[in-house]
Amino acid sequence: MSTHENRLCRLIVREHFGPIVEKVANVLIRKGRMPVGLIANFTALKPRQVRECLFVLIQHNLAVYAESQEKSRIVTYYEINRTELLNRVLIPKVLHSSQDWFERDGVLITQSLLTHGKLTITDCVADILKTSGIAPGKTSTQRTQSLNKVFTRMVKEKCLIAVRPSDSLTTADKDMAEEKRETDKMTLPPTAAELASIRKALGAQKQAEQNATIVGLKRRLDTMDDSYGEKRPRLLTDGDLVIVEEVETDVYFKVNFDRFIIRWRNVQIANLYEARLNPTAKTIMQTIMNLAEERMINCKEEHSSPVSIMLLLNSLPKDTNLIDTLEFDSSDLGPNNTKPKIHECLDKYVQILEEDLMKILKRDAGRSGQYIINLKMASEILKKNLIQGIVSARFGAPYVRIMNMLADKGKLEEKQISRFSMMPVKDVREKLTTLCTFGVLNLQEVPKTKERTPSRTYYLWEVILSRAADTLTDRLYHTMGNLRQRRFVERAKRAVLLNKCERTDVKADDSLLNAAEKKELETLNGVLEMLEIQELRIAEMVITLRDF
Amino acid sequence: MSRGGGRGGGRGGGRGGGRGGGVPGIQTFGPDAIQATFKNPGETYPDIILPVARPPTDDEGEMYIAMKKLQETLYSSPYYLTEPKKPGAITRYTDRYHQDQAAKRPKLDTIKSSKSFFPDELHSILDPKTITRKRQISQKYDISKIDENEDDGDAEIDPETGLAKKTGDGEDGLEEEEYEDEEDEDDNDYGENYFDNGEGDDDDGDDGDGGDY
């Protein structure tokens, strides 16, 4: 959309897939959807090369296509999937989280899927066995079984998601085709109201499909094999059968970035309570989020599914100390001053969390003993905190004071802001214009007369959170593009040295590089590490502003 | 422009003296930041104090190593497309140690994927033996009736196109024409070019020579 976003997308493709794919992606990003012939014209590449680039992009879920009938031919148009492309900046964090949640096998599976875009379980396991080998003391069958187990767990937890052939088609074309199918059933053309109801029904159907069972997972009955040592075979009863969930071998899977973003958001929501209350409150909140996470599909939902307090009590980590971290009144403890029971402590904690001013946790009105999380409120608080942090680091405390005041009180005039913030009007005016140029504040003109003369117009300043988040996201894209480009420049500056390091004799023998060259390589490594880490930090800010 | 040059020259001298004297640069970030305003724009290129980033944590270091490893894997995978190296004019001794990465990478037809994810025109990338079929909607014409049309001088003219209306047996439907996968030298997909880039415009040319100015 914006120039900075386009540049960042182009640089991501260049780093991961090379300069030829970058040319094709650049044309599609800047000019929109087009067929192979037109792309070849714009890029001056051969049609065969363009097809190879498009193949690579579709394989990695970065491009979609649509076939349309034009006169006597079927023409295929290709389009870039920006969301998936921009998610690639989060790959280092995804790999690290896979390590934390699924250990070494999880990282290997994630790496294999990110290298190939999409794979079946069999191909993924075969690729891992080929690249990383088998540890001594383990057989190939054991290794395959352990990888299959981790893969199945990742699919069950929705960190991996099935890819269907329809996912390679553009969403707009799919929606239009479904709408056409519904309207073709009608004898007369649909009215606006009928069309709206058809679209609503299709949207609800799509939502229901997402909430349904996990695609790519099948269930089968298996026996619990515990008949070791029995001489006579015995008849199997229902109690011997267990339901085993297995991943279908012919279904392709890819990394589900949305699930990782949901989990990171849940961790950040729980972290809010650590600063406000105590670490035990954070643990309780984290457990509630984990229990509600199963039904979450994306970060844009307003409320979570209800969580019962009994389930929460059973799911808390064993080392959670509820009793000693709470203070009870002597009247609550009774005449013998006995320590309260754990469920009473949990009730007290949940009451404190519910009464907290952030209003994130609230009682489910329909059912007793159930609580839901106001995800929309939580996301707004996270965004506001981040924007305050950015403004504070960039401009200082007085600017944050003005911004917070406008966020709390709504639209205010210059004079009112000056009175509330106890700053002279001249200073306030400068700060307001600076913040407006930065993109955090908005100006609303309310004319008193029809002529809209400046002297007879109210100028009201306000903070619109969504707009501020969008503007700052664009600025952050600009910064990320700069950091990425700087990496290319740093490598280009040392191109001769890097070319020397690529030589087969230098790879075999390090001593062919002199001390100055080795030091230069170390400096380059340090610079690239800093740039990559800075970009990752900014990417984390971007997902807070854009996706939460 | 002389104003800009004069300013730059004067300021450059001042700055040089300032740097020698140890005058600190301007703080543009944080609580003590000096913001440029309309009345006090400040210097055009001031010496600014840049904020220093906090050092990387252990987790971030691990993330960098994991990403570097993935980058190397992608670089040597069939998905990283580069032009094959053309032999240079001069042959050097060290050329024997340089590997052509493009030649070393596996080809795209070795990857494991399914044709159902790709449109027909990309199937040949995954499976080079596939004969690409161009899907067209065509009308069949009855050849025996061509002579009849020629004798008939009262052929109906289509008012829209100004051409004779087709009277052959029309059959609307998808007819698949098979053709071999295009060779590189015959790669000419201009048939699919929706826009003619102005080639179809009649260029009348100048009315006589424009004359030299």
From TrEMBL, chain A:
Question: What keywords tag this UniProt record?
Answer: DNA-directed RNA polymerase, Nucleus, Transcription
Q: Does the keyword Acetylation apply?
A: no
Q: Which residues form the RNA polymerase III subunit RPC82-related helix-turn-helix domain?
A: 8-67
Q: Which Gene3D superfamilies does the protein's record reference? A: Winged helix-like DNA-binding domain superfamily/Winged helix DNA-binding domain (1.10.10.10)
Q: What is its main location?
A: nucleus
Q: Which family does it belong to?
A: Belongs to the RNA polymerase beta chain family.
Q: What is this protein called?
A: DNA-directed RNA polymerase III subunit RPC3
Query: Source species, please?
Result: Linnemannia gamsii
TrEMBL record, chain B:
**InterPro entries for the chain:** RNA_pol_III_Rpc31
User: Where is the stretch described as Disordered?
Assistant: 1-30, 122-213
Keyword Nucleus on entry:
yes
- Compositionally biased tracts (Gly residues): 1-24
Entry's Gene Ontology BP terms: transcription by RNA polymerase III
Entry's Pfam families?
RNA_pol_3_Rpc31
Q: Which segments show compositional bias classed as Acidic residues?
A: 148-159, 170-190, 198-213
Q: Where in the cell is it found?
A: Nucleus
Q: Which UniProt keywords apply?
A: Nucleus
The answer to whether the entry has keyword Nucleus is yes
Please tell me one Gene Ontology term that the record gives under cellular component: RNA polymerase III complex
Q: What is its main location?
A: nucleus
What is known about its subunit structure?
A: Component of the RNA polymerase III (Pol III) complex.
User: Which family does the UniProt entry place this protein in?
Assistant: Belongs to the eukaryotic RPC7 RNA polymerase subunit family.
User: What does the protein in this record do?
Assistant: DNA-dependent RNA polymerase catalyzes the transcription of DNA into RNA using the four ribonucleoside triphosphates as substrates. Specific peripheric component of RNA polymerase III which synthesizes small RNAs, such as 5S rRNA and tRNAs.
Put simply, this protein is called DNA-directed RNA polymerase III subunit
Organism annotation: Linnemannia gamsii
